[in-house]
User: What shape does this take?
Amino acid sequence: MAGKIIIVSAPSGAGKTSIIKEVISGEMPVEFSVSACTRAKREGELNGKDYWFLSIDDFKERIQEGDFLEWEEVYKDNYYGTLRSELSRIWNKGKNVLIEADVYGGINIKNEYPEISLSIFIMPPSVDTLRERLEKRSTDKAESIETRVNKALEEISLAQKFDVIIVNDNLDEAIHETKKKIREFVENS
Ligand code: 5GP
Assistant: This one.
């Protein structure tokens, strides 16, 4: 049953992090793949738990070394990527890998592993809700909120490329639905 990949993508502010936190904290047979990124650490985040926080130079060196399954410059000078070593680390434990990636990264991983992956798109209930959520997150500056909203609109137009779309208008229901889809996939396919 192990050895599969669950990809969770969403525009920033869709509530994806809250859903993922619940999914990986329970008894689900999945483990979070810790992505590498070059953005600054937010308060409360830990290196090696939330992300591997790398300098841009280190990130680029690891691209050259072929260490990434996929990577994207999600925002200017902010690189994010999935390390191949995370897949083997988790598969070797007999677990399934849960990867959080931006929408383009999610589509790329699905294309690379079409049979063994399930791609899930978390949809915000509306653009207004998305903007509100981003504004509440005080760590993001005003201009970066605008950038993120515009990027979100672009990403929402690609939702149909995913295996499953979950609308996050009620967090508990979205968590329940996400867990159900993951269980069905890892147990039945
Ligand atoms: P944040 O800075 O809010 O944690 O994440 C910003 C964006 O980067 C989100 O859309 C998130 O899904 C994306 N992201 C996180 N990890 C990865 C990854 O490994 N690969 C790609 N392509 N995107 C990622």
About this structure: The chain has one domain: 5-188.
